Structures are given as structure tokens and as C-alpha cells.
Predict the 3D structure of the following.
Amino acid sequence: MPNFIMSYLGSTVTPGQAGSQFWALIYVLVIFAGVSLIVVCMNWLERKALAHFQIRLGPMRVGPHGLLQPIADALKLMLKEDIIPTEADQFVFWVAPMIGLIASFTVYIVIPFGPSQAVTDMNIGILFMLGVSSLGALGIIVAGWSSNSHYPLLGALRSSAQTVSYEIAMGMTVISAILMTSMNATGTGTLSMLEIVRAQQQQGIWFIFKFFPLGLIAFVIFAIAMVAETNRAPFDMAEAESELTAGFHTEYSGLRWSLFMLAEYAAMIAISSIGVTLWLGGWMRPFPNLLHAPAWDFIFSLFPGLTFGGLAAIAFIGTARMPSHSFFKIQRIGLALFAALLGFIALLLLVIAVAGRAADTSVAARFSEGIGNVYWFLLKVAIFMYLFIWYRATWPRYRFDQLMQIGWKVMLPISLGVLMLTAIVGVIVS
Amino acid sequence: MRVPENDAKNDAPVHSLSNLNLETPEKPYLDSNELVINMGPQHPATHGVLRVILKLDGEKILGTECIIGYLHRGVEKIAENRTYTMFNPYVDRMDYCAAVSNGLGYCEAVEKLLNVEAPPRAQYIRVILTELQRLASHLLWLGTHALDIGAMTPLFYTFRDREEVLKIFEKYCGARLTTHAFRIGGCQYETYAGFENDVKKFLTFFAPKIGEYETLLTSNRIWLDRTKNIGVISAADAVALGVTGPVLRASGVKWDLRKAQPYANYSKFDFEIPVGTNGDTYDRYLVRVAEMRQSIRIIEQAVGGIPEGPIMAKVPKVIKPPAGEIYHSIEAPKGELGYFIVSDGSTQPYRLRVRPPSFVNLQALDLMVRGALVADVVAVIGTIDIVLGEVDR
């Protein structure tokens, strides 16, 4: 058994490519658990970040600095009465959150967290991702329709129109990124997620900077369409709180409602992952070409450990700053334990990084590299996630027709223009 | 049955009380032309318990009808069973976001009936508190209006600053919201030590904050898209509907009772009446923001020149105005707030009628949102600045 594990840690291809169904299953489970955990963290982070934008403290009561708040919320939602309105279409009502959830989680099969850190590598990966992730809109439409209520219906209609119109602009920018992949030595483009990242590696440039400013414009359009696709502020028409009370999930409560939230956040992470893969060099660390000496490799491999070290330090400072009143004793101990946990993870990561340096070809080196890949990928995704929160705190909501106008009259022409220019420039350069 | 697309207004049936044709369509299902939805009374954007019935074609508004009365407490009837003094706290509960202004209107009306005048020192205190209340009311409006349009953050900033006003109220009279600050004939309370200082400190703290809100909203692309040319009401329509306050002024009518029929001692202060041009939601926003700046100017002048002297005029213990009737109105934050009192010479008003600005302004809703979209209804309800306590009384 240990040999089996060790043999896999040394592998350089994804389980799908290696044909190992066992490891594929393990990966799926790890990704499912990991994404769910990230969603829980996002829940806390969003509330905290939003609160600090708005001169509030956010959750402070459940656990130190409200760290246990998401768990309390999840418990509450699970224990709540499961209401299905009598007038609703029972079966469809029941199935709708599942559709959303399945759609947003299926996407993770092809997300390359690293060259071997993906479940599988499909040769039509990006098409698969776009296709499956837009299925999430079906869940919303079906939820709105089956509720048999006016506000959800309006929310669902808005959502379907919005998703369809923004998918086109998004697709155009994706195509221009795919065109860029054909600029490497072999001269053929690719739809495979892994190969898209490798193309950026080969060409020595993230596609956001390719054919400047074409890549940048395409990226910006993608980033805007991304927000619209996931129904987040300022494009959150489908659940516009002040207009449609809660939009498509007005009639949902308890666990079903939380499935929608889980699906929404999972979809946000998934679509950010597409953005990272296409434009920001996927799992690649910054400046892989400029700073490619082994010493630099080592320095960058320390980053995951240092990040956790930083988090641990913040948690320790928080512990020290806790009020000394005995009322906070348990919270103080809890936060100290949390800080210790973070510190332990940091130490572990640092040890792996150092061990990985000692022997290039060892399992530790592969392991360290894998951690680095996943770390850089997630860091880039995290930037997108922070932007999602930031948008929400800053901007008012667009009106529905204005949103459609921007989609069709501004974003689509620009993305078409970028696509054509990319093609022309690509032909000229090659 | 069906409202023709271009001629929604003239379709109302003669016998129906409602301006919407709300009868069940012949084909109850699969009739996809119209959708009648209830916005409220429990809805995040109707500022309380307003219920608006919307008739929609897709998202386009074919007509609206406001159903009010969910917060009706019979304030006017209560007045007939209370003495003039006893009724004073009740007026605070009408526009609970601007209790001080309500109190000022009522006290001045009864004073007019009694033919007494509050002493100058009381007048100054009244002006300062009323203008502070205007700031608080506009701050509440700005935060909730922005929240309706989807900008969450300004709400918390405006509440932070409104809190400072409420602190001054609390220090002055012990209450924050329903202040009951004034009495018939003047003020009950002398200013506390450091009152002027507190007010001045608040003004220096608050003046730059207006700029802060403006950075978030005034030139925000989305804010402009959501408010420009939304809920337009022409000056003629506004006057015809009896609309007052910032809503009227945003349409370009320079009508402010503080200048037009100066009450208290507003004629002593130097300030301007901000006026808009287009009568749209954006202009109303600008007018209110400009009004906040003018209020600061008034308070600055007033707080520097509070005269010494008594704060209460000579008013009998038992108020028994001579028989007669009086109408007195003031410029409340939301518009003209009028009190019509009929006295039969007893200690209780024979009839008391309130002209609440919110109630009258709310009439304009239907005119402002016809042909617009659902999202605009929310923006327009916010921009009219209604308080349901005052609409329903």
C-alpha cells in the first residue's frame, strides 16, 4: 500500500490519463470536500470582508472572531423545517437545487490545479467546462418556475436571459484565448485545460499580457461576464434583494436553500478557475521564465508555508489582543489552538519544501511541486473571489435592461473585435 | 380585459375603485400577457408596510396601485380625545424619522391658534434641532435609497453619521427617535452645557462626510444609469398633484416654505434653495444632498447666535385656545407638513387634520413609474422618501 501511494505521488500525469480509477475517485472526493470547505471559508470571509467595508465587525460571537459562524449557520439550515409550497411542482422543486449543485461540481473534473493535480484531462476540456457550468442556469430557471410564485418566476426569467447573453461574449473571449494557444511551436491550438496552461508556459507569457492590450481587453470582458454568469453583484438580477425579495430562491428554505448557496459559491470558484487557467497561467508561479534558477524555484516553493505562517501569526496576534476577561477564556484557547494548527501546517509545508530541495527527483520534490502548483492556482482564484466581494460592497445594481444592453451592445462587439484582431495579429506574427 | 399596450391609462373600468383592472382573466392560466404582483406589505424595498399592486407586462409596468393603511393608528381621531398638550407626543409617531419637525409644526400651529410666539432663544433652539433632524432624515433616506438600488455600503456610512445627530438629541431631551423636544410656547428643556460645542463638533465632522457619499454615488456609472431619467415628473404634474419638498424642487419649482412663508425665525438665516431641472431620480438625489449642505449652513449661523433669554412664552397651564380654525405648515424634510386645527374653545381640538408630505407625494408614484421596469419602482419609492407612519397616520 505505501508503495502504491508513493508511486502515485511520483506520477506526472493526471489519474484520468494514467487510467487509474481508484486515484480518480480519491481526487473527486478530495475536490468535493475541498470545495465545500472553501465555500464554508468563503462564507465567513465574505461576511467579514463585507462587514469591514461597511465599518462593522461582522460575526464575532460564535467562536473567536466568528470563526465557527459558518458551522453554526450550516447546522441551523440543516435543522430547519423543509418547506415545499403546496402549489409548487413538488418533484421539480426538489430536483432544482440538485441540478445547480451537480452542474457546478461536475466542472471540477477538468480543472487543472497542477499538471497532475486534476481528475482528468479532456481534449475538449474548456468546452466541457463552459457547457456544464452554464447548465447551472437550468437549475435556477427550474427553481423559479417550479416555485409557482411571481417573484421567483421573474428572477428565473432574468437569470436565463442574462446567462444566455453573457455566455456569448464570454465564449468569444475564450475563443481568442484558444487562438493564442496556437501560437506555440507546434502551431496547433488546443481545447484541453492542461494544454492551455502549457501553451502559456511554452510561450513564456500569461495570455492576459499576450498581444497587449488584446489579451487584457479579452480578460476584462471575461471577468465582467464571469460576474454576470454567476449572478453576483452588480449583476445579481436573479436574486435582487430589494426588487424580487430573494429572486429565484424566495420559496426555498433550510437545506435546499443552502444547496443553492453551495452551488453559487462552487460556481464562482469554478468560473474563476477557468479565468485563471485561460488568462493567468493556471498553476504557474509568477515569472517562471524570468526567474527560473533553482534558487528561485526554492524561494517560491517556500510561499505556501510562509502564507500559512502569516495566517498563524495573525491568529496569534488575535489571541494576544483578545480581552483578558474570563468570559473570553474559551475563545482565547480556541483561537490559540487554531493558530497552532495553522502554524503546524506552515511548518509541515516548509519541511516538505526544504526536503524537496534536497533531492530533486524524490517523492518529496514531486510533492513539494504539487503543493506549489495548487497553492499558486488557489491564490489566483482567491484574488477573483476577493474581487467578487469587493464588487458587492462597492456598486449599486444594474437594471435588467441595462445589463442586457451592456451584454449585447458593448461586450459582444468588443469581444468580437478582439477575437478578429487576435486572429489577424496571430497570423501576422507567425 | 387586456390593457392595450399604448393606452394603459384610459382602460380603467368606470365602476372599479381601483385604477387597475384586477378581475380574473377569462383564461386564468396560459394568459402570458399580464402579471399582477403584490409588492409588499412585506417587502424589503417598500420602506415599511406599503403595498403596491403592480400590473406587469414582462417587467414593464402597466400600472400601479398603492394600498395603504397597514400602519393606520387613527392619529387624527386620537387628537380629538386628547388635550392640546397631551397630543404633542403623538405627532412624533407620524414621521418617526423626523419627529422634531413634526413637533415643530404642531407646536407652531397651536401657538398660532393661541396667538403667542415662542421667545427668540427657543426659536433658535428649534431651528437648530429641526435642521439637525433634516440632516438625520436625509441621511436615512440616502442610505435606504442607495440600498434599494443595490449599493449596500452607503447605508452603514449614513447610519454612522446619523447616530451623531441622535446622540445630540439624546443629550438634549433624553430621547433619540420620538423626541418630543418642543412644547407649545417654546421648549421644555434648556440646552445642556456644551450643546453649542457638540453641534459645532458634529458639523465639522459631518461636512466632509457628504463628499464621501458623493464619491461613492454621484459620478458612479451604475448609479447614473439607474437614476437618470427614471421616475421623471414635470413641474406642472408635480404642482397639479400637490407634490412638495425635494421632489417638487427637483422638478425645478423653487418652493420652500422656509423662504416662501418663513416660520420660526428662518428669515434671519442666509441659505439657498437647491433646485433641480429634470425632475428625475438623480436630480432628487442631488437636491437632497445639496439641502444637507444648506442645513449645515443654517445650523452654523444659528448655533453661533443663540440669544440669552427665556425659552418658554407665557402660556396658560391649561391650554384653551379661542374658538376658530388655523392652518399652519412647515417645510419638513419630506415636504410641506401642515396642521389644520379646528378649535371649539375647549381644551381639546374639535378636529385636527394633518397634511402629511409623504401621503401626498406618494400619489405621484403611479405617474412616475408607468412604462418603467420593476427595478425602477423600487428606485422611485425610495426617491419619494415616504415614511409609512406618516402616510397612514
In short: The mean pLDDT of chain A is 84. Chain A is about 70% helix and 0% strand.
